[in-house]
Design brief:
Largest sheet: none
Shape: elongated
Helix content: 55-70%
Structural class: mainly alpha
Number of helices: 4
Radius of gyration: 23 Å
Oligomer: single chain
Order of helices and strands: HHHH
Number of strands: 0
Number of domains: 1
């Protein structure tokens, strides 16, 4: 799609407030359950679950943990692991939508800025 030289849209204050409120629902819902404020070091030290590893983790928790409970760490039950994995999946769905919203918002802002700069440089006429 060619980049427009004139955007020609704007949002009403109610639309803007609605978009911000929708995102605030995600923030408020998570904060009602838990408050996290990880440092950069803590983020770096966390074990990462890549998409490639998820099938193995699912199998370990869903199949192996119930079959071999003697291998489960005493401080972390299979039920806790299953619950955390469920939360991981739920956040994956939320992040997918947030990333989509972020990408759309970023592109719209970029095009709006491009149109503004084009108008200032004289490429767009009255």
């Amino acid at each position: 799609m060619p980049v427009p030289v004139k955007l020609g849209i704007d949002f009403t204050p109610a639309e803007e407030a609605s978009m911000v409120a929708g995102i605030q629902v995600v923030i408020d819902t998570i904060k009602a359950k838990i408050t996290l404020n990880l440092s950069t070091k803590e983020r770096e030290e966390l074990s990462k679950v890549s998409n490639e590893r998820v099938p193995y983790i699912l199998r370990s928790i869903a199949e192996y943990a119930p079959m071999y409970p003697q291998f489960n760490p005493l401080a972390y039950s299979a039920a806790d692991a299953q619950n955390d994995l469920k939360t991981y999946g739920q956040m994956d769905a939320v992040l997918t939508k947030l990333n989509e919203a972020s990408e759309l918002s970023t592109e719209l802002q970029m095009v709006a800025g491009h149109c503004k700069l084009s108008a200032q440089s004289g490429l767009i006429r009255g």
